[in-house]
Amino acid sequence: MIEDNKVVKIDYTVKDxxxxxxxxxxxxxxxxxxxxxxxxxxxxxxxxxxxxxxxEFSVQIQPDDAYxxxxxxxxxxxxxxxxxxxxxxxxxxxxxxxxPQGNIQVTIIAIEGDEVTIDGNHPLAGVVLQFEGxxxxxxxxxxxxxxxxxxx
Length: 152
Known about the structure:
With 152 residues, the protein is mainly beta. The protein folds into two domains: 6-67 and 125-148, Chitinase A, domain 3; 72-119, Thrombin, subunit H (Beta Barrel). Helix content is 9%, strand content 41%. It has two helices and nine strands, in the order E-E-E-H-E-E-E-E-E-E-H. It has helices at 42-48, 143-148; strands at residues 6-15, 21-24, 31-34, 56-61, 75-79, 94-99, 102-112, 115-119, 129-140. The strands form two sheets. Strands 1, 2, 3, 4 and 9 form a five-stranded antiparallel beta sheet that branches. Strand 1 (6-15) and strand 2 form a beta hairpin.
């Protein structure tokens, strides 16, 4: 049964509300995570708690239990010069930046002359996520995995 300090492996597919594929483990190894260590979004972790190996799941996760709501304050216009050493800037490029809560990823969403609009929201912020899959394995975590907070 899935509970804290268990290593869980799942095969999954996640889509948005319109049914657009966001991610899948199909064709890859199952996703392995340490339950209770915050390795996956909180809503999915809560939805999987108490389930058993071999069980199928289909759960809808609201933004507050996933990547949060969109925050328009995280959209800013900056001067091209802040991207020192980058010759070509294109919409969709992702950079690491220092934010108030530490490192954040920002995506270029517009370029007009020397003004570059960046968005610090997670790309899935504000998105309702639909997960479907099957629990492939549930095992006790090793002492080292628990100490390190992730699967080895």
